[in-house]
Amino acid sequence: EVQLVESGGGLVKPGGSLRLSCAASGFTFSSYSMNWVRQAPGKGLEWVSSISSSSSYIYYADSVKGRFTISRDNAKNSLYLQMNSLRAEDTAVYYCARDHYPRGSSSLPYWGQGTLVTVSS
Amino acid sequence: DIQMTQSPSSLSASVGDRVTITCRASQGISNYLAWYQQKPGKVPKLLIYAASTLQSGVPSRFSGSGSGTDFTLTISSLQPEDVATYYCQKYNSAPSTFGPGTKVDIK
Fold this sequence. Notes:
The structure holds 2 protein chains of 2 kinds.
Chain A: E1 3-7, E2 10-12, E3 18-25, E4 34-39, E5 45-51, E6 58-60, E7 68-73, E8 78-83, E9 92-98, E10 110-111, E11 115-119
Parallel strand pairs in A: 2-11
Antiparallel strand pairs in A: 1-3, 3-8, 4-5, 4-9, 5-6, 7-8, 9-10, 9-11
Chain B: E1 4-7, E2 10-13, E3 19-25, E4 33-38, E5 45-49, E6 53-54, E7 62-67, E8 70-75, E9 84-90, E10 102-106
Parallel strand pairs in B: 2-10
Antiparallel strand pairs in B: 1-3, 3-8, 4-5, 4-9, 5-6, 7-8, 9-10
């Protein structure tokens, strides 16, 4: 069974940093691209970033480019999101999600439960 | 970047009604389009991918169609458990933008 478990969320002051983690199990982690998707309170889904299986291809939403860094450790079956220069508008539940298929662009059939990041003074 | 729009933003229908939600891409995306259902307080659930392929385990009352720029999600007979917000997402290339969502409830 595919499992994705996020951690690392919490309360941080504007301008601060936070590192999210996503522990994956139940599949061959090193074969799949992974994604971060966020949802601000009462708002819609926003794709944040994706990373290919070997970290060769990395993409970011314009809203986080230059502030957030996605990475992965295939030996540890883990995905990360380093978030710097945090702003109030980054307040959201952050979900880790796995691509459907090992190759090419695909939909997101597997999601974690999410971790809440609150940016407030 | 390609923008995704959805209409309507919300709708209210009776149990048993046929419900149709539209998603439009600002440029052609072939069939690289997924639909998700998110119930209040829950994690998004993939319903349909490749514009019209039903994800395993999803009831057959859900269907998707379209290609290029215009797509639809249809619920053939609305059930009480279908109360949720529905999102489309394009995934042909980054950014994998979501639509703004359509909130569906029961009249």
